[in-house]
Write a structure and sequence with these properties.
Helix content of chain A: 25-40%
Number of domains of chain A: 2
CATH superfamily of the largest domain in chain A: Zn peptidases
Distance between the termini of chain A: 40 Å
Shape of chain A: elongated
Number of helices of chain A: 9
Active site (chain A): 73, 126 (proton acceptor)
Strand content of chain A: 25-35%
Number of strands of chain B: 6
Structural class of chain A: alpha/beta
Oligomer: heterodimer
Largest sheet of chain A: 6 strands, mixed
Helix content of chain B: under 10%
Order of helices and strands of chain A: HHEEEEEHEHEEEHEEHEEHEHEEH
Shape of chain B: globular
Binding site for Zn(2+) 1 (chain A): 71, 95, 149
CATH architecture of the largest domain in chain A: 3-Layer(aba) Sandwich
Strand content of chain B: over 45%
Strand order of the largest sheet of chain A: 1-2-6-3-7-15
Distance between the termini of chain B: 42 Å
Function (chain A): Catalyzes the release of L-lysine from [LysW]-gamma-L-lysine.
Structural class of chain B: mainly beta
Largest sheet of chain B: 3 strands, antiparallel
Order of helices and strands of chain B: EEEEEE
Subcellular location (chain A): Cytoplasm
GO molecular function (chain A): cobalt ion binding; hydrolase activity, acting on carbon-nitrogen (but not peptide) bonds, in linear amides; zinc ion binding
Strand order of the largest sheet of chain B: 3-4-5
Radius of gyration of chain B: 13 Å
């Protein structure tokens, strides 16, 4: 498929329609309304905008439910849609409208299957506070969960690191600079140096990035009211599996040396089991398309971190696209890869339907 | 029962008929992960390795 006619190709209508509608976090409504209409036009059993603003489409009646959870918001920075050498450039092409569009097209291609309900959700707010995914947690209890994030058509993502934001505040009474008293800024820098040392100690013996604690200093600020000076740091942390909040609090307390810190957000890491019927269905599907499957663990965070532990079902993330293009000005997706991913998804969904029908009554975990 | 050899260490691996396509087995001799890539004939290949990747 080459040439400008590609943009009109029926098999790309969902992808192009989403990419044409710029939808940074907080401004997803137009894209959501369009996607709901698109799912209805494709023959979904039903589609609607839910109470938080997510686009939701469902096909079939169950009782088993496979939830395909993508996100429809993007980071800011519009990239007008254009086609170059078989690549579609646009904001969200890989993160994550490509995977979301592939979910919709695959479910439409597979159609209703006995005993199974496919639910496709384009969640809002994933690049922000994940309000779309958080809203879903008490309302669904799927038997299997597929997260829509770019993994490349031959790869399955099994885990994401966790993340935390920490604000550090150091306060000191103002003193003359000739008095040699520690300033608030010096105290904040000392905090950062102690935390870096604690992170190095924590990471001893941990060879992989996924298993390491990573800390980055994101912002520094200082001010004074004439009597007291204040220095603040914003620290971003990427968390390995097993690092829970109390352990992080202990690290921060040890680094603080009396200064204050506040964990503003804490999302634990998640690593999915690979020996599940869900993974098996995808391995077979990738091989059926001539691919050589592989697994990946990501340093970022996704809605898998929230939804998978809440629902406790077999989980993976899948979607076309190169995740190294996430959030970059060069974001694009290969058309051929997109179409391959739709075929892999369709094959995998058919495989899951047969598993449900062969093993009715199992919990599939 | 079905059987084949581990592609890594040649150990004999026997499974019952309930084994599934795509299932990941562990070689009892060398410990490597093996993927069931065909049932007829019963075929094992080295399972995909877990790589690490930046991004979402």
């Amino acid at each position: 498929m080459e040439g400008e006619g590609i943009l009109q190709a029926t098999r790309l209508t969902t992808l192009v329609g989403l990419l044409e509608r710029y939808s940074p976090t907080g401004n997803e409504a137009e894209a959501v309304a369009w996607l709901v209409g698109r799912m209805r036009a494709l023959g979904f059993t039903g589609a609607r905008v839910d109470e938080i603003g997510n686009a939701v489409g469902w096909m079939g009646a169950g009782p088993y439910q496979v939830l395909l959870l993508g996100h429809i918001d993007t980071v800011p920075g519009e990239i007008p849609l254009r086609l170059e050498a078989g690549r579609l450039y646009a904001r969200g092409a890989v993160d994550a409208k490509g995977p979301l569009a592939a979910f919709v097209d695959a479910v439409a291609q597979v159609g209703e299957m006995p005993g199974v309900q496919w639910v496709v959700i384009g969640a809002v707010g994933e690049e922000g506070d994940s309000r779309g995914a958080r809203f879903l947690l008490p309302h669904y209890r799927p038997q299997m969960l597929i997260i829509g994030e770019p993994s490349g058509w031959e790869r399955l993502t099994l885990g994401y690191k966790g993340s935390a934001w920490v604000q550090v505040t150091a306060r000191r009474t103002l003193a003359h600079t000739a008095a040699l008293a520690e300033s608030a800024c010096e105290a904040a820098v000392a905090f950062w140096e102690r935390l870096k040392q604690a992170v190095l100690t924590f990471n001893q013996g941990r060879s992989g990035i996924f298993d390491q604690l990573l800390a980055t200093l994101r912002q520094m600020h200082s001010d004074s009211n004439g009597f007291e000076e204040r220095a603040q740091l914003q620290i971003g942390l990427r968390l390995p599996p097993g690092l829970e909040r109390p352990e992080l609090e202990a690290l921060l307390t040890a680094a603080a040396n009396g200064d204050t810190w506040l964990i503003e957000d804490f999302i634990p890491a998640y690593r999915a089991e690979k020996n599940t019927p869900l993974v098996r269905a995808f391995l077979a599907a990738i091989r059926a398309q001539g691919g050589r499957p592989s697994f990946t663990l990501k340093s970022g965070t996704s809605d898998m971190n929230l939804a998978a532990p809440a629902w406790g079902c077999p989980t993976l993330a899948y979607g076309p696209g190169d995740s190294s293009l996430d959030h970059t000005p060069y974001e694009h997706i290969e058309v051929e890869e997109y179409l391959k991913a739709v075929e892999v998804l369709s094959h995998a969904l058919r495989g899951l339907a047969s598993i449900f029908n062969d093993h009715s009554g199992n919990n599939f975990a | 029962m079905m059987s084949t050899h581990c592609p890594e260490c040649e150990a004999l691996i026997e499974v019952n008929e309930e084994v599934q396509l795509g299932e990941i087995l562990v070689c009892p001799d060398c410990g490597v992960d093996l993927e069931v890539t065909a049932l007829e004939p019963f075929t094992l290949e080295l399972a995909p390795m877990e790589a690490e990747d930046w991004g979402e």
